[in-house]
Amino acid sequence: MSSCASPEEKNAEASESNAQMEENCVYRYNADSTQFTWTGYKFTERVGVSGTFEEIYTEGFSENENIIDVVSGVDFKIPVSSIESKNEDRNNKIISFFFGSMNTDVIYGQIQELSGEGDAGIAKVLLRMNALEKIVPMDYTFENGLFEMSAEIDVKNWNGSAGIEKLNDACYDLHKGADGVSLLWPNVTLNVQSRFDVVCP
């Protein structure tokens, strides 16, 4: 009987089958996939210096066909000692002078709410540093299993001015731009990428 069906009927049958399969499939967090990248800025020209955190611990991921439901409510913590900028001296100075001044050994956070259509929108992310909690709106996208969030923060919102000043003093000459001014900006761009596998019964 199927060999006698018209092309339109065959396409309809295939679409119905695919829809049924998608209904039974869910997204599952790939725990080894997360990358947390930060970019700080120096010089009057605002030149970026990037790095990562090599350790990030998460909990609260569910399995669901809707990525918003999978991600919402997830908690995470990042030991600042795991910072990696491909320069050991810089790593140590960031830990000692910046995070040390902020009395922060671990950055805590929670993805509290996502708004959008699932493939793009805004995620409200709580970040706790220096005993202060602030909500950071982060742009997010979800495409081909890759979930990405990004935002620029101002560490002064976590009373981080002293840490910026001490870090800049420790790297004074290294932070001099073409105009001879030593400057470390309080702005940091954050980018998080995680992959989600499709799991079907």
How would you briefly describe this protein structure?
With 201 residues, the chain is α+β, with helices and mostly antiparallel strands. The protein contains 4 helices and 11 strands; from the N terminus they run αββββαββαββββαβ.
Report on this model:
The protein is α+β, with helices and mostly antiparallel strands and 201 residues long. It is built from four helices and eleven strands; from the N terminus they run αββββαββαββββαβ. It has a single domain, classed as Lipocalin (Beta Barrel). It has helices spanning 7-24, 67-71, 88-101, 161-170, and strands at residues 26-29, 35-42, 47-53, 57-59, 75-79, 83-84, 106-116, 120-129, 132-143, 146-154, 184-199. Strands 1, 2, 3, 4, 5, 6, 7, 8, 9, 10 and 11 form an eleven-stranded antiparallel sheet that branches. A hairpin with a 4-residue loop joins strand 2 and strand 3 (47-53). It starts with 6 loop residues before the first helix and ends with a strand. Mean pLDDT is 89; it is low at 1-21.
